[in-house]
DNA sequence: ATGACTGGCCCTGCCAGA
């Protein structure tokens, strides 16, 4: 089975690219981030016509996450536990019974956190703490689990074309990277790194400063696997060509393939 | 060398993103 994560940077602006992707790649599950809309204006009928069920959390203008699945989505959780006052649409999780067995999948839009001297950085760190706690409880279920999304974390120097340029940035601060390592220390596997040690495996190129043309990218979109999912890991694809299209998202889709 | 974009919204400059 194949599971894709993609920050689309407005699902309405990216509707044609998304539908093309669903038709051409036809993954079992797609985790979307940055819908930038409420559910009223989500192109739900078009997605359903492409053969996908939808579970989504919307927000006017910002954030927004979705799970698209060829198979029914059950046990949907909207929002990350641990802070009832957090109304930002950044987390949706569901259980999907596919041909190859049952898998629990989350679509995560982790806060950016810049500027770091504002309230936004503590919010990012608190969100990461809540994600660690929730992942810990999910891992106790011993399920095939995929925590996919835009983590807004550059894990290591090899994950940036110009690491020095990111020093002091919320995506790359030592505290940010340490909390990402805390996720891995729970027993989660970074799917791309389990398959490929190379530098230069980017998933995001800024719209500004010719970042795409100069390949000044970063790797911030990740698929973290439970041990039961990692046992079935069969490969990861970064759909880099999406960034070369007209009116692209600044992020490209990343797909993990699990055996069975 | 420097600066460079895109999207949504209070519809028009401003906030947010990374």
UniProtKB/TrEMBL annotation:
What is annotated as the active site? Answer: 109, 150 (proton donor/acceptor), 251 (proton acceptor)
Where does the chain bind Mg(2+)? 7, 34, 150, 152, 250-251
Q: Which domain of life is it from?
A: Bacteria
Segments forming domain Endonuclease/exonuclease/phosphatase: 5-251
For the site Important for catalytic activity, which positions are given?
221
Annotated site residues (Interaction with DNA substrate) in this chain: 251
- What is the required cofactor set for this protein? Mn(2+); Mg(2+)
Key words, A-Z: Hydrolase, Magnesium, Manganese, Metal-binding
Q: Where is this site: Transition state stabilizer?
A: 152
For this entry, list what GO says about its biological process.
DNA repair
For whether the record's keyword set contains Cytoplasm, the answer is no
GO MF terms on file?
A: DNA binding; double-stranded DNA 3'-5' DNA exonuclease activity; endonuclease activity; metal ion binding
According to the record, how does the cofactor bind?
Probably binds two magnesium or manganese ions per subunit.
- Tell me yes or no: is Hydrolase among this UniProt entry's keywords: yes
Q: Which NCBIfam families does the entry link to?
A: exoDNase_III, xth
**Family recorded in the similarity comment:** Belongs to the DNA repair enzymes AP/ExoA family.
Q: What is this protein called?
A: Exodeoxyribonuclease III
Question: Which species?
Answer: Salinarimonas ramus
């Amino acid at each position: 089975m194949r599971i894709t994560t993609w920050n689309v940077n407005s699902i309405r602006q990216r509707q044609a690219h998304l539908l093309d992707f669903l038709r051409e790649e036809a993954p079992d599950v797609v985790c979307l981030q940055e819908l930038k809309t409420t559910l009223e204006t989500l192109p739900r009928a078009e997605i359903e016509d492409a053969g996908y069920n939808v579970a989504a959390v919307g927000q006017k203008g910002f954030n927004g996450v979705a799970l698209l699945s060829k198979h029914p989505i059950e046990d949907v959780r909207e929002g990350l536990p641990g802070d009832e006052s957090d109304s930002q649409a950044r987390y949706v999780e569901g259980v999907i019974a596919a041909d190859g067995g049952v898998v629990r999948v989350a679509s995560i839009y982790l806060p950016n956190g810049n500027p770091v001297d504002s309230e936004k950085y503590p919010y990012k760190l608190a969100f990461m703490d809540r994600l660690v706690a929730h992942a810990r409880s999910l891992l106790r279920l011993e399920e095939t689990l995929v925590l996919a999304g835009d983590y807004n974390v550059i894990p290591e120097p090899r994950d940036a074309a110009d690491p020095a340029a990111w020093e002091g940035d919320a995506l790359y601060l030592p505290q940010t990277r340490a909390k990402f390592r805390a996720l891995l220390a729970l027993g989660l596997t970074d799917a791309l790194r389990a398959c490929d040690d190379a530098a230069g495996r980017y998933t995001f190129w800024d719209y500004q400063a010719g970042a795409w043309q100069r390949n000044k990218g970063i790797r911030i979109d990740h698929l973290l696997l439970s041990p039961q999912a990692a046992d079935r890991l069969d490969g990861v694809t970064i759909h880099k060509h999406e960034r070369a299209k007209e009116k692209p998202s600044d992020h490209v889709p990343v797909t993990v393939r699990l055996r069975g």
